[in-house]
C-alpha cells in the first residue's frame, strides 16, 4: 500500500486498489475488506457498520469545503481586523491540535478539525495581512492560485493523467525530504548569519519556491489517493473529517509557498 507524504494520511485505512485515482465508491471494496479491517483497528476506526453508512466522496467534499471555508473566514476576519497578535497563540493551538489528530486519529471529529482549520486560518490571515500591506492584491492572487492548483491536481488525479504508483510515491517522498532538509539548512544557516539564497527573493529563491510548490501540489495526488482508498475500503462516514484535516495541512503549506513566491515576483 502506498503512503502519503502528508503525515495525517499515513493512518488512513486503505484498500487494495491503486493506479489511477478515480474516487470510485465501489471498486476494490470487497477485495480489501480484511486488510481495511486490520488497518482500521490500528487507528481506532472500524469499517462502516452498526447502522452507520460507508464513507462517500460527497462526505469528503462537504467536510473539506467546511474546513477550508472556516479557515478562509477566520483568515479574512483576522486580516481585516488587524488582530495579528493572535497569530502566535493560534499557531500554537493549530500545532497542538494537528499533533493530537495525527497520533490520535479517532479523535478527528468536527470540533477538533474545525479548531485546527480556524486556528490556521488566523495564522494565514495574519501573515497575509502583512504581505498585503506591502504588496496590495497579493492575498487575492494567492487564494486564487491555491484554489487553482487544488482543482488542477484533482482533475489530473481523476483523469489518470498521472498514475499514483509506488515509484511515483518514492520519488515524491524523496523530493519532500530533500526540500525539507534544504529549508532546515537555510534556517540554521540564517541563525548563524549565513545566507544560502533560498529565501531572499533572488532567482535561486524563486526557483526553490517553484520546486516546493510543485512538491506540495503533487502531494495532493497522494492525499487524493489515500482518501480514495478509504472510500473503497468501506471506512465509516465520520472518517471524512480526518480526510478533511489531512487535505487542509497540505493546502496550508501550499498557500504559504504560493504567497511567498508571489512576494518574490513583486519585489523591485
The amount of helix comes to 55-70%
Could you tell me the radius of gyration in angstroms?
Answer: 19 Å
Tell me, rounded to a whole number, the average pLDDT: 82
Unreliable stretches (pLDDT < 50, length at least 5) are 13-44
Which oligomeric form is depicted?
single chain
- Major pleated sheet: none
Distance from N terminus to C terminus (CA atoms, Å) equals 48 Å
Work out the strand percent.
under 5%
SSE string, helices as H and strands as E: HHHHHHHH
* Overall 3D form: globular
How many DSSP helices? 8
What's the β-strand tally? 0
Total separate domains: 1
Structure classification: mainly alpha
Write the layout of secondary structure elements.
Blueprint: H1 33-43, H2 57-81, H3 87-103, H4 110-134, H5 138-159, H6 166-191, H7 203-232, H8 240-265
Helix pairs in contact: 2-4, 2-8, 3-4, 4-8, 5-7, 5-8, 6-7, 7-8
Question: What does it look like?
Answer:
There is one protein chain. It contains eight helices and no strands. It has 268 residues and is mainly alpha-helical. The radius of gyration is 19 Å and the shape is globular.
Which terms summarize this structure?
single chain, about 270 residues, 8 helices, BaxI_1-like, Bax inhibitor-1/YccA family protein
Question: Summary?
Answer:
The chain is mainly α and 268 residues long. The chain has one domain (52-265). The protein contains eight helices and no strands.
Amino acid at each position: 500500500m502506498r503512503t502519503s507524504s502528508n503525515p495525517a494520511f499515513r493512518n488512513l485505512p486503505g484498500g487494495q486498489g491503486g493506479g489511477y485515482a478515480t474516487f470510485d465508491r465501489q471498486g476494490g471494496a470487497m477485495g480489501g475488506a480484511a486488510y481495511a479491517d486490520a488497518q482500521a483497528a490500528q487507528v481506532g476506526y472500524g469499517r462502516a457498520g452498526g447502522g452507520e453508512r460507508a464513507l462517500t466522496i460527497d462526505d469528503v467534499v462537504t467536510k473539506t469545503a467546511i474546513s477550508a471555508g472556516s479557515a478562509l473566514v477566520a483568515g479574512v476576519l483576522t486580516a481585516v481586523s488587524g488582530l495579528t497578535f493572535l497569530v502566535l497563540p493560534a499557531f500554537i493551538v493549530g500545532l497542538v491540535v494537528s499533533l493530537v489528530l495525527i497520533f490520535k486519529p479517532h479523535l478527528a471529529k468536527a470540533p477538533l478539525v474545525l479548531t485546527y482549520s480556524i486556528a490556521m486560518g488566523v495564522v494565514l490571515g495574519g501573515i497575509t495581512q502583512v504581505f498585503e500591506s506591502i504588496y496590495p492584491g497579493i492575498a487575492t492572487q494567492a487564494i486564487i492560485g491555491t484554489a487553482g492548483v487544488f482543482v488542477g491536481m484533482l482533475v489530473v488525479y481523476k483523469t489518470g493523467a498521472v498514475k499514483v504508483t509506488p515509484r511515483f510515491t518514492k520519488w515524491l517522498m524523496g523530493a519532500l525530504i530533500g526540500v525539507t532538509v534544504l529549508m532546515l539548512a537555510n534556517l540554521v544557516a540564517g541563525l548563524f548569519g549565513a545566507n544560502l539564497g533560498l529565501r531572499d527573493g533572488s532567482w535561486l529563491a524563486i526557483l526553490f519556491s517553484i520546486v516546493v510548490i510543485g512538491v506540495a501540489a503533487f502531494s495532493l495526488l497522494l492525499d487524493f489517493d489515500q482518501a480514495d482508498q478509504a472510500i473503497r475500503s468501506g471506512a465509516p462516514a465520520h472518517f471524512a473529517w480526518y480526510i478533511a484535516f489531512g487535505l487542509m495541512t497540505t493546502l496550508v503549506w501550499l498557500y504559504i509557498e504560493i504567497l511567498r513566491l508571489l512576494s518574490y515576483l513583486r519585489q523591485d
